[in-house]
Amino acid sequence: MSTTDLALAAAWLAQVEIRLAEHRDLPALEWEGAYTHFRRVYARAFERTQRGEALLWVADRGDGYLLGQLFVLLASEVEPLVADGRHCAFIYSFRVRPEFRGAGLGTRLMAVAEADLLQRGFRQAYLHVAHDNLGAMRLYKRLGYRRRASVSGDWSYEDHQGETRQVHEPGWRMGKLLSPAQVTPLSLPLP
Fold this sequence. Notes:
Shape: globular
Order of helices and strands: HEHEEEHEHEEEE
Radius of gyration: 16 Å
Number of helices: 4
Largest sheet: 7 strands, mixed
Structural class: alpha+beta
Oligomer: single chain
């Protein structure tokens, strides 16, 4: 990227608001139909936020158009080793629209989520990444995540039409110890 390109990227990135999702954001998480099949998944994730079990972060360009998202499971009965409600949390459903990648938005989303987890007393964060998602793996490694275990990546969900869909995404469980030294001005939401 040229100096001009970097300046332009910094300018638009400064205008993006990283905030917790609201109920009105649920349709926008579908990205104009590309992720409609996850409608019920998003609704259930939002219900977990209402019970204090999860956080849904969104990157809003200022008009409700979502440029990215990152979900955090704080407590899980299914996998308490990665989300125990006190010390470790699980990051999932992290994505940035392709046309906005490479400018720091994903790094900023992760930094905001990690800073918030630290403020809540969490000391570890985990996530899963598919073996073939090399771009995400590079980002996670750069942010300090390390491979902890191989995961089958087998899971299922109920789509927007009530059909059960099976997913097979073999990958890695990655983890990171969170420390207060990581909280920088970059990691705080801009006003």
